Amino acid sequence: MPQMSPLGWAWMVVFVILGYFLFLMLFYFMFKYEIVLDEIKIKFMSFVWLW
What we know:
Keywords: Membrane, Mitochondrion, Transmembrane, Transmembrane helix. It comes from Uroctonus mordax. The chain crosses the membrane at residues 6-31. This is ATP synthase subunit 8. The chain is an all-alpha fold and 51 residues long. Helices cover 86% and strands 0% of the residues. It is built from two helices and no strands. The longest helix has 27 residues, at 6-32. The termini are far apart.
C-alpha cells in the first residue's frame, strides 16, 4: 500500500463517515416509510428477480 499524506487519510475518513451516515439514513427512511414503499419495494424486487 502506497504511503498516503495526512490529507489523503483525512479525506478517506470523511468519505467513510459520510457513507456510513448516508447508509444509516437510507435504512432509517426505508424502515420508517416501509408501509408506504411496500408496494414499490415488491415491484422492484420482482423486477430484480426477473433479471
